[in-house]
Specification:
By secondary structure, this protein is an alpha/beta fold. It has two domains: 171 residues, 3-Layer(aba) Sandwich (Rossmann fold), CATH 3.40.50; 205 residues, Dehydroquinate synthase-like - alpha domain (Dehydroquinate synthase-like, alpha domain, Up-down Bundle). It has 15 helices and eight strands. A hairpin with a 4-residue loop joins β6 and β7. α7 runs parallel beside α11, α8 packs antiparallel against α9 and α10 packs across α14. The longest helix is centred in the middle third of the chain and has 23 residues. It is globular. It starts with 10 loop residues before the first strand and ends with a helix. It binds 5,6-dihydroxy-NADP (NZQ) and zinc ion. The site of 5,6-dihydroxy-NADP has 36 residues, from α2, α5, β6, α7 and α11. This is Iron-containing alcohol dehydrogenase.
Length: 390
């Protein structure tokens, strides 16, 4: 096990009716004027936005609203949000929604006190030193942004989707998590969320660092839980306990705990971000196609951890043949994704003739060469993986 620092300062308030505590939490973290950041309307239609606003105003907090965040959020709304926040003297951002609303709020939060272009942080030119505090009312368990220090934004000029990782500056101060708010999620979004949280664990589980048994156990337990409870939530959208388990698992998948003591991978995420940047597919759906293809490729070179996953998570009976066990586990993973309606190929995502040369070129331009930790992947390798997804 390697040395590590684990930093997860977010105050999580979990359970029924917890959105009513948003006002008290905002006061606790020093807000006087809040910008509410939300998406395309689900939070308005459900009445949630109104309830959160009321909870804030009851505590004497002024509110301004910034709606219209799109999935795979873009920089245009971030610039508008920065201008509005400065003009209105906002001192806290509260995102009501999922990864897209939260990541937009985080981008505005670091952009407001910075004199230059907020994109400097995303393209690696500058490190975030100051940011306004961010709070979250979560409506979709998926991206894990409620507990992460990360934010992913697409620059429309050139369709460049980049993730900013900070250790502490962009971790939300509080996250309100009411599983009942997720009852209205369409099955497709539920499934995308399940896939994304599994991917966040895979990116940390597939490592060559040895002797991380405690971290492996947390990761394997979470993966098994996400599959059983996720399938229940997919089949019965109003099953509170299934929704609650999935919601909390989504946070634990991405707040850093599954990476403690070891090197991480992230090749699958980098490969997926290129797809969702150009073709606009949901991040989780893209991952359902990338993950098994990536696993199959790396298992042929380095089957050990994939076989462990197959045996400990997918219930494959151990044999002396590591590769055979690994491939068996991948087949079962594909079956699971199919059972929750996730795509398996580019074609299933509606991308009939993907420009693989361009995906590979952009991937390595943005993320370097080679990429990945479990296996180091060259452009020829990533080209082969994308091609296997046709
Ligand atoms: O926009 P509205 O109308 O709210 O609809 C949303 C959206 O269409 C809908 N939705 C959310 N909650 C709902 C609901 N519909 C009905 N009932 C509810 N309760 O779901 C759709 C997807 O929302 P979005 O926020 O885009 O989903 P998600 O949380 O999956 O976020 C995806 C974004 O997060 C990034 C992804 O790349 C993508 O851009 N990620 C962010 C990470 C981070 N910050 O740490 C890590 C992840 O790996 C990921 O890359
Ligand atoms: Zn993800």
């Amino acid at each position: 096990m390697e040395n590590f620092t684990f930093w997860s300062p977010t105050k999580f308030v979990f359970g029924r009716d917890t959105e009513k505590q948003a006002g008290a939490l905002a006061v606790e973290f020093g807000a006087t004027k809040v910008m509410l950041v939300y998406g395309g309307g689900s939070a308005v239609r459900s009445g949630l936005l109104g309830r959160v606003r009321e909870s804030l105003e009851c505590r004497g907090i002024d509110c301004v609203e910034l709606g219209g965040v799109k999935p795979n959020p873009a920089d245009d709304l971030v610039y508008r949000g920065i201008d509005l926040a400065r003009h209105e003297g906002v001192d806290m951002l509260v995102a009501v929604g999922g990864g897209s609303a939260i990541d937009t709020a985080k981008a505005i939060a670091c952009g407001v006190p910075y004199e230059g272009d907020f994109w400097d942080f995303y393209c690696g030119k500058k490190v975030v030193e100051k940011a306004l505090p961010v709070g979250v009312v979560l409506t979709i368990p998926a991206a894990g942004s409620e507990g992460s220090g990360n934010s992913v934004i697409t620059r429309l000029d050139g369709l460049v989707k980049l993730s900013l990782r900070t250790e502490s500056a962009l971790r939300p101060r509080f996250a309100v998590m009411n599983p009942e708010l997720t009852f209205t999620l369409p099955p497709y979004q539920t499934a995308c969320g399940i896939t994304d949280m599994m991917a966040h664990i895979f990116e940390r589980y597939f490592t060559n660092t040895q002797a991380c048994e405690v971290t492996d156990s947390v990761a394997e337990g979470l993966l098994r839980t996400i599959m059983t409870q996720g399938k229940k939530a997919y089949d019965k959208p109003c099953d509170y306990d299934a929704r609650a388990n999935v919601m909390w698992a989504g946070t634990l998948a991405h707040n850093g705990i599954c990476g403690t003591g070891r090197r991480e991978d992230w090749a699958s995420h980098f490969m997926e971000h290129e797809i969702s940047a150009v073709y606009g597919v949901a991040h989780g759906a893209g991952l359902a196609v990338v993950l098994p293809a990536w696993m199959q490729f790396v298992a042929r070179r380095n089957p050990g951890k994939v076989a462990q996953f197959a045996r400990n998570v997918m219930g494959v009976e151990p044999t002396p043949d590591l590769l055979a066990d690994a491939l068996n586990g991948i087949t079962r993973l594909r079956e699971f994704f199919r059972s929750i309606g996730m795509p398996a190929t580019f074609g299933d995502m509606g991308i009939d003739s993907p420009d693989i040369d361009r995906l590979v070129e952009m991937l390595h331009l943005h993320k370097g060469n080679p990429i990945g930790g479990y296996e180091r992947l060259s452009p020829a390798d990533t080209h082969a993986i994308y091609t296997s997804m046709l």
